[in-house]
Amino acid sequence: MKKTVYLVRHGQTFFNKMKKIQGWSDSPLTEIGIKQAEIAKDYFSTNQITFDSAYSSTSERACDTLEILTDQPYKRVKGLKEWNFGILEAEHEYLNPPLPYGDFFVPYGGEGEEAFKKRIADTLMDLVQKDIGKNILAVSHGASCRQFMRHWAHESSVDQEAPLANCCILIFEFENDIFRLKKIVNHDYTDLGL
User: Fold this and answer.
1) What is the pLDDT of residues 137-150, one digit of tens each?
2) Most buried of 34, 86, 147, 194, CB within 10 angstroms?
3) What percentage of the chain has pLDDT greater than the value 70?
């Protein structure tokens, strides 16, 4: 059965605004982050998209975003969490190395890039294979979304070099155990002063 997976990045957080490294550490949504989630919700409503099931990273920022997008029950899933940056969590982003990060965070107690990519890919594969619904919502994080895109890039003609904005929506088609990215929805936040 063909399914559609809507993979959404959470809204802006205080750590995003403060340029802090935010992986497994957490911070709440800002007022702008809440408005971004409302804009994403309007996208789903305007396009008459409803969900048969919903999943979120266990991080508060992802759960709070999902609860704005829909009022239906959802499952919190640890495998959808952001990259673990070890002891560099909550430090300033200037400590990040140039991309790609590779195994930079491993000596600091964090995850290597390939292990992280595999975790996200395996988690979403497991969820979608077991889910009997046709429209599935998953709320996760910026690097998680990007690594999932990279994992399936060989099957997709859609790509984006620019960063994935908060509350962007990645629309994947899932059939025969293959994910194909069909569309990236980056909302217009001009009115929010961004």
Assistant:
1) 999 999 999 999 99
2) 147
3) 99
